[in-house]
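In keeping with the milestone schedule agreed at the kick-off meeting, the structural modelling team has produced records for the first pair of proteins. Each record is given below as a sequence line and a structure-token line. The laboratory manager (R.T.) confirmed that both were archived under the project's standard naming scheme.
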Amino acid sequence: MTATTTRPTPGTATAPGTAAAPGTAAPDAPAAGLVEVRGVHKSYGTLEVLAGIDLVVRPGEVTVILGPSGSGKSTLLRVINHLEKVDRGFVAVDGDLIGYSRWGDTLRELKEKDILVQRTRIGFVFQGFNLFPHLTALENVVEAPVSAQGRPRAEVEAEARELLARVGLADKVDARPRQLSGGQQQRVAIARALATRPRVLLFDEPTSALDPELVGEVLDVIKDLAHGGTTMLVVTHEIGFAREVADTVVFMDAGRVVEQGPPTQVLDAPRHDRTKAFLDKVL
């Protein structure tokens, strides 16, 4: 996609073909991993899942998103990656609109091949792993950089081996998902997300499908990434993890950001009664 030369004004972007164009204010100088979510609405029928989300994640920051089931946390991540289309508002990474291009006074959805290229810049780790069952761990990691980015296979394979070693799976490169534990599968999924050299990493409850004794091994890998300067948004119920690694904690409820701030504020001295009630139940 060609980068936009103007930045959309919050709340102006709507459905493709009918959307108001981005505003005319000059953008900030883009930096790798800057995520902007502005005025985002998303509904399924009459159910409003995201009700005007505004969120900025600075390059290299780790934002942990907390909230009850049904609060819109996972949908927000899927909107950032354009796995779900916004009804209103926009998402931008490093100043580039995600999923859309500007045509005069409208926003039009990009072609699927261009959206796939954008997704390689925004790694996504799903709670259900989503590995290809017929491919080995190495092949799962190699697939996207070769097919979507057109990188040389030999180069990608060498890098994939390094990534699998980084997540503690150097001895599992030839294993298929059915031969791996849940924790090992999730670590392969993390290596796969890293293989496209993304600017941003999204984690959607990465430990929720794991047996309790396997949670730690996955969290340790994510903590290592968090200390490495990658922009990350993590949906989780692991409060201790949030306290340890987050720069910002966001609490969502009913499709809205109720409260956000440093972990010491949101977790230890929340200002909103709804945040307090949630934490009282999970702590």
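The second protein of the pair:
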Amino acid sequence: MKEAFIKELEDVPYYCLTADNWTDSSNQSYIGITIHYVNNSAMTGRVLGCFPLYENHTSEYLMKSIQNIFDDFKIKNDKVTAMITDGAPNIKKAGIDLLGKDKHLVCIAHVASHLLPDALNNFKEFNTIINKVKAIVTQKKRSIPASDKLKEMQLKDGKTEGTILKLKLDVPTRWTTKIEMLERYILLEPYIYNAINKCEKPLNLLTREEISIVKDILPIMEPIKTVITEISGDDYPTCSLIIPIINCMKQKICSTVSTTEVGELFKTKLQTAMANRFKNIEMCSLLAVSTLLDPRFKKIHFKDPCAVSSALARIRKEIETMKPVDPKPRPTAVNTVNSNSI
């Protein structure tokens, strides 16, 4: 199978790859590599594998490890259009040293996942509320009577077995679960008090003011969840989406009206985080060129004229260096006439 896959890659003109470090439960480190390309007009993605790492994760060691994987699968560096990694300095430098700055991209979903932690940093007013919700959800999940009561009340309100909702718990390694936890809590809030009464351990429930704050902040959080979900797709191209969807996220959050002091402060902190995380995104050549060439977007979502000018210059340069394709000769009137008709 490996030989057949390598043969398939030989016929692919270009491809992009992702690289990510992770550690298993026994503390063994790995680097995972995936490859993405168009095959017979269809988006195709393959996992090259998860390869163990045995040395300190220096950029030099990671670069050599990735190059060894490339060599093993006969992946040619000049056919790689981009390599996507997270923002860790070591793997970022490894990608740049291996392929060059113009062929390296930081995962934008990973960058967007840092927006909430940035905004919540040293934000005691809202972190206290989040921790209360997390404690309630955790305790409820440990209590069978509380879970049964929550289910029973929803059934009485006309829900079916297939539409009953459960509380969700924030999982730090999953980027949107904090938002989903708060959303689900608000949806089930009318049932929470009666369900939690079934728990053996008394819990500190949210006050009306705290519920109002969560309801106020959720619409400000929602665009982040949308962005992460949309640009994490693996069955459609996402590169040309980045600049438009990030700028739309900024506009949506900026235009959201907050009705509480805590909500307004959160909005301000989030806007600062977005400005810091995405300040030079339009100057990324790969993203800018992809957006300009996408007929859905072109120049519409750009804010920086210099970024557009720079991307257009690169497109012109690429066109000038392209080899012209010899057109097929058109048949003339003479050679299309049948000799029998003369």
